[in-house]
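Protocol step 4 of 6: structure prediction from sequence.
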Amino acid sequence: MPRPSDRTQRDLGSSAEELTSGPPPSGAAASVYLPPFRVDVTVRPGVALPISRAALARAMAAALEAGGAPRPASIGLILSDDGELAELNAAHMGMPGPTDVLSFPMLPPEAYPPHAGRDRAHLDQAATAAAVFPLPPGVRVHVGDVVVSVGPARLQAGAGRGGQTGEVGWSAADELRLLVTHGTLHVCGWDHAEHVEEAAMRSLERELLGAG
């Protein structure tokens, strides 16, 4: 499995059509179609959401569009708890304890268009990626998966520790929208290891979330 991207502890037009007529059984996946994208949402047993699966899928589709994801494409979203995130964090990041979101890209960053903050070598590699990763017409490529722990989103929002800075007082729904947007941009090759790219990523997240 590809190495995931992690949101650090404090860096901590079309309508959706779902396959099911109502909420799926606990733990089951439901696909939300937002052409040219499909978002496969899985809610783990016992996890209660403060926002609809369709709303989270729309946030992810907007981030896929902004990130220049292949078209058509699919992405997975798993809404889970601290236990699963802790296991994934240890196994794939070598870090103890849970985190709020992990991303598992299936394509390398060079498969996506260049964006602000990437160095010259990345830009040159991205320029050749279109030839390296051509897609057959009509084939939907799975670009990756995002796993979110819903509990921290509720706690962070409720304590006024939400947002990109950990100082935003907003709803748990808004915090989850930020987490899935952040995770999807990681899938699309964005990162925040360098200050310039971090600033560009945060700016794009604010734009996608309608926060200016």
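Step 5 (inspection) to follow. The chain is about 35% helix and 20% strand.
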